[in-house]
Amino acid sequence: MPTRDDIHGVTRAPESVQDFLLSYGGKTPFHEAMWRLALAQNIYWKLAGDFKIWDASTPLNERGGIDIWHGGKPFANRPIRVESGMVERRKYPHLEGWILQKWFPPSSYPKEVWFAPENCMFDGTPKLGPYPQFGDYELINGPHVHLPTESQLRLWIAHYWTRREAAPASATQRTLKALDAAAEEEKLYEKRLHAVVDEYMRERCSYIWSSSIEAGRIRSEVARRCGIKEHVGN
User: Fold this and answer.
1) Helices (H), 117-212
2) Please, which residues have CB within 8 angstroms of residue 55's CB and are 6 or more apart in sequence?
3) Average pLDDT value for the chain
Protein backbone atom coordinates (compact mmCIF):
# COMPACT_ATOMS: atom_id res chain seq x y z
CA MET A 1 0.00 0.00 0.00
CA PRO A 2 1.48 3.38 -0.98
CA THR A 3 2.24 5.99 1.63
CA ARG A 4 2.63 9.76 1.47
CA ASP A 5 6.35 9.58 0.74
CA ASP A 6 7.06 6.42 -1.23
CA ILE A 7 5.37 7.14 -4.58
CA HIS A 8 8.25 7.27 -7.04
CA GLY A 9 9.01 10.61 -8.62
CA VAL A 10 6.26 12.63 -6.97
CA THR A 11 7.46 15.95 -5.57
CA ARG A 12 4.83 17.03 -3.08
CA ALA A 13 3.77 20.51 -2.10
CA PRO A 14 4.92 22.01 1.21
CA GLU A 15 3.72 20.24 4.33
CA SER A 16 1.26 23.03 5.11
CA VAL A 17 -0.49 22.53 1.75
CA GLN A 18 -0.58 18.77 2.23
CA ASP A 19 -2.10 19.21 5.67
CA PHE A 20 -4.73 21.58 4.26
CA LEU A 21 -5.76 19.12 1.53
CA LEU A 22 -5.88 16.31 4.06
CA SER A 23 -8.13 18.24 6.43
CA TYR A 24 -10.29 19.69 3.65
CA GLY A 25 -10.70 16.62 1.45
CA GLY A 26 -10.34 13.78 3.92
CA LYS A 27 -8.61 10.43 3.55
CA THR A 28 -8.88 7.44 1.28
CA PRO A 29 -9.69 4.00 2.74
CA PHE A 30 -5.92 3.44 2.70
CA HIS A 31 -5.27 6.47 4.92
CA GLU A 32 -3.92 8.65 2.11
CA ALA A 33 -5.08 12.18 1.35
CA MET A 34 -8.01 12.19 -1.06
CA TRP A 35 -6.44 15.16 -2.87
CA ARG A 36 -2.79 15.88 -3.52
CA LEU A 37 -0.69 18.58 -5.18
CA ALA A 38 2.41 17.48 -7.08
CA LEU A 39 4.76 18.48 -9.89
CA ALA A 40 3.52 16.96 -13.15
CA GLN A 41 7.01 16.47 -14.60
CA ASN A 42 8.03 14.30 -11.65
CA ILE A 43 5.16 11.83 -11.80
CA TYR A 44 5.95 8.49 -13.41
CA TRP A 45 4.02 5.28 -13.91
CA LYS A 46 4.89 1.78 -15.04
CA LEU A 47 3.96 0.72 -18.55
CA ALA A 48 4.38 -2.60 -20.34
CA GLY A 49 5.95 -2.95 -23.75
CA ASP A 50 8.66 -4.51 -25.92
CA PHE A 51 12.07 -2.98 -25.24
CA LYS A 52 15.37 -3.43 -27.08
CA ILE A 53 18.33 -4.51 -24.97
CA TRP A 54 21.65 -3.28 -26.39
CA ASP A 55 25.22 -4.18 -25.59
CA ALA A 56 26.59 -1.47 -23.30
CA SER A 57 29.56 -0.98 -25.64
CA THR A 58 27.34 -0.06 -28.61
CA PRO A 59 27.43 3.75 -29.08
CA LEU A 60 24.10 5.49 -28.75
CA ASN A 61 24.21 6.79 -32.34
CA GLU A 62 24.76 3.24 -33.69
CA ARG A 63 21.70 1.71 -32.08
CA GLY A 64 19.67 1.64 -35.27
CA GLY A 65 19.61 4.43 -37.82
CA ILE A 66 21.86 5.19 -40.80
CA ASP A 67 25.64 4.90 -41.06
CA ILE A 68 26.57 8.11 -42.92
CA TRP A 69 30.23 7.10 -42.99
CA HIS A 70 29.64 3.99 -45.13
CA GLY A 71 27.28 4.96 -47.90
CA GLY A 72 24.19 5.72 -45.85
CA LYS A 73 23.50 2.08 -45.07
CA PRO A 74 21.68 1.00 -41.90
CA PHE A 75 24.02 0.16 -39.04
CA ALA A 76 24.75 -3.53 -38.77
CA ASN A 77 24.44 -3.43 -34.98
CA ARG A 78 21.42 -5.21 -33.61
CA PRO A 79 20.04 -5.35 -30.09
CA ILE A 80 21.05 -8.37 -28.04
CA ARG A 81 17.40 -9.20 -27.55
CA VAL A 82 13.95 -7.69 -27.26
CA GLU A 83 12.31 -8.09 -23.88
CA SER A 84 8.73 -7.65 -22.84
CA GLY A 85 8.40 -6.04 -19.47
CA MET A 86 7.76 -2.92 -17.45
CA VAL A 87 9.38 0.47 -17.87
CA GLU A 88 8.86 3.80 -16.13
CA ARG A 89 7.59 6.69 -18.22
CA ARG A 90 6.31 10.18 -17.43
CA LYS A 91 2.59 10.10 -16.78
CA TYR A 92 2.04 13.65 -18.04
CA PRO A 93 4.71 14.17 -20.74
CA HIS A 94 3.18 17.43 -22.00
CA LEU A 95 2.87 19.09 -18.61
CA GLU A 96 5.23 21.08 -16.39
CA GLY A 97 4.20 22.62 -13.08
CA TRP A 98 1.87 22.04 -10.15
CA ILE A 99 -1.19 19.87 -10.69
CA LEU A 100 -4.06 18.95 -8.41
CA GLN A 101 -4.92 15.26 -8.34
CA LYS A 102 -7.78 13.29 -6.83
CA TRP A 103 -7.74 9.68 -5.68
CA PHE A 104 -10.05 7.20 -7.40
CA PRO A 105 -10.87 3.76 -5.95
CA PRO A 106 -9.99 0.46 -7.66
CA SER A 107 -13.61 0.17 -8.81
CA SER A 108 -12.94 3.15 -11.08
CA TYR A 109 -10.69 0.92 -13.21
CA PRO A 110 -12.79 -1.96 -14.61
CA LYS A 111 -10.76 -5.13 -14.86
CA GLU A 112 -12.60 -6.21 -18.00
CA VAL A 113 -11.09 -3.17 -19.74
CA TRP A 114 -7.71 -3.20 -17.96
CA PHE A 115 -7.11 -6.86 -18.84
CA ALA A 116 -8.87 -6.88 -22.22
CA PRO A 117 -6.74 -8.70 -24.86
CA GLU A 118 -6.37 -5.57 -26.97
CA ASN A 119 -5.04 -3.70 -23.93
CA CYS A 120 -2.43 -6.32 -23.01
CA MET A 121 0.84 -7.67 -24.31
CA PHE A 122 0.96 -11.10 -25.95
CA ASP A 123 1.71 -12.70 -22.57
CA GLY A 124 -1.28 -11.06 -20.91
CA THR A 125 0.63 -8.23 -19.18
CA PRO A 126 -1.55 -5.08 -19.13
CA LYS A 127 -0.10 -2.23 -21.17
CA LEU A 128 -0.95 0.16 -18.34
CA GLY A 129 1.11 -1.86 -15.89
CA PRO A 130 0.01 -3.42 -12.61
CA TYR A 131 -3.68 -3.15 -11.82
CA PRO A 132 -4.26 -0.29 -9.31
CA GLN A 133 -5.46 -2.45 -6.45
CA PHE A 134 -5.16 0.52 -4.09
CA GLY A 135 -6.69 2.99 -6.54
CA ASP A 136 -4.80 5.79 -8.20
CA TYR A 137 -4.56 9.58 -8.47
CA GLU A 138 -5.78 11.41 -11.58
CA LEU A 139 -5.32 14.93 -12.88
CA ILE A 140 -8.10 17.35 -11.95
CA ASN A 141 -6.58 20.80 -12.44
CA GLY A 142 -3.37 22.33 -13.75
CA PRO A 143 -0.58 22.69 -14.53
CA HIS A 144 0.30 25.93 -12.76
CA VAL A 145 3.68 27.62 -12.59
CA HIS A 146 3.17 28.97 -9.10
CA LEU A 147 2.15 27.08 -5.98
CA PRO A 148 -1.62 27.61 -5.62
CA THR A 149 -3.15 29.20 -2.54
CA GLU A 150 -5.67 27.48 -0.27
CA SER A 151 -8.42 29.64 -1.79
CA GLN A 152 -7.51 28.45 -5.28
CA LEU A 153 -7.46 24.84 -4.16
CA ARG A 154 -10.93 25.20 -2.62
CA LEU A 155 -12.21 26.70 -5.87
CA TRP A 156 -10.72 23.96 -8.05
CA ILE A 157 -12.16 21.21 -5.88
CA ALA A 158 -15.58 22.89 -5.95
CA HIS A 159 -15.40 23.12 -9.75
CA TYR A 160 -14.58 19.43 -9.95
CA TRP A 161 -17.69 18.41 -8.02
CA THR A 162 -19.82 20.74 -10.15
CA ARG A 163 -18.50 19.23 -13.37
CA ARG A 164 -18.87 15.72 -12.03
CA GLU A 165 -22.52 16.22 -11.22
CA ALA A 166 -23.15 17.75 -14.65
CA ALA A 167 -21.35 15.09 -16.70
CA PRO A 168 -19.98 12.12 -14.73
CA ALA A 169 -17.14 10.34 -16.54
CA SER A 170 -17.33 6.56 -16.80
CA ALA A 171 -14.59 4.30 -15.50
CA THR A 172 -14.17 2.78 -18.95
CA GLN A 173 -13.65 6.19 -20.53
CA ARG A 174 -10.94 7.05 -18.00
CA THR A 175 -9.12 3.76 -18.61
CA LEU A 176 -9.22 4.16 -22.39
CA LYS A 177 -7.99 7.73 -22.01
CA ALA A 178 -5.08 6.45 -19.92
CA LEU A 179 -4.19 3.96 -22.66
CA ASP A 180 -4.12 6.75 -25.21
CA ALA A 181 -1.90 8.83 -22.93
CA ALA A 182 0.49 5.89 -22.47
CA ALA A 183 0.80 5.39 -26.23
CA GLU A 184 1.44 9.11 -26.74
CA GLU A 185 4.17 9.15 -24.09
CA GLU A 186 5.94 6.23 -25.80
CA LYS A 187 5.96 8.20 -29.06
CA LEU A 188 7.34 11.25 -27.29
CA TYR A 189 9.97 9.12 -25.55
CA GLU A 190 11.18 7.88 -28.94
CA LYS A 191 11.27 11.46 -30.25
CA ARG A 192 13.33 12.57 -27.26
CA LEU A 193 15.74 9.68 -27.84
CA HIS A 194 16.14 10.56 -31.51
CA ALA A 195 16.71 14.19 -30.57
CA VAL A 196 19.58 13.13 -28.32
CA VAL A 197 21.10 11.09 -31.15
CA ASP A 198 20.68 13.98 -33.62
CA GLU A 199 22.38 16.38 -31.25
CA TYR A 200 25.21 13.91 -30.71
CA MET A 201 25.69 13.48 -34.45
CA ARG A 202 25.68 17.20 -35.11
CA GLU A 203 28.35 17.73 -32.48
CA ARG A 204 30.51 14.86 -33.74
CA CYS A 205 29.96 15.55 -37.44
CA SER A 206 29.37 19.28 -37.52
CA TYR A 207 31.24 19.79 -40.78
CA ILE A 208 28.71 17.63 -42.65
CA TRP A 209 26.00 20.17 -41.84
CA SER A 210 28.11 23.04 -43.10
CA SER A 211 27.62 24.89 -46.41
CA SER A 212 30.78 23.48 -48.01
CA ILE A 213 30.63 21.70 -51.38
CA GLU A 214 32.02 18.50 -49.88
CA ALA A 215 29.40 18.49 -47.13
CA GLY A 216 26.66 18.98 -49.72
CA ARG A 217 28.03 16.08 -51.76
CA ILE A 218 27.98 13.76 -48.72
CA ARG A 219 24.43 14.76 -47.83
CA SER A 220 23.23 14.15 -51.38
CA GLU A 221 24.94 10.75 -51.51
CA VAL A 222 23.43 9.67 -48.19
CA ALA A 223 19.99 10.82 -49.33
CA ARG A 224 20.33 8.92 -52.63
CA ARG A 225 21.24 5.69 -50.87
CA CYS A 226 18.33 6.17 -48.48
CA GLY A 227 15.91 6.55 -51.37
CA ILE A 228 15.26 10.29 -50.85
CA LYS A 229 14.79 11.93 -54.23
CA GLU A 230 14.15 15.49 -53.13
CA HIS A 231 17.01 17.98 -53.03
CA VAL A 232 19.01 17.72 -49.80
CA GLY A 233 20.73 21.01 -49.18
CA ASN A 234 21.43 23.47 -46.39
Assistant:
1) 150-166, 171-204
2) 80
3) 75
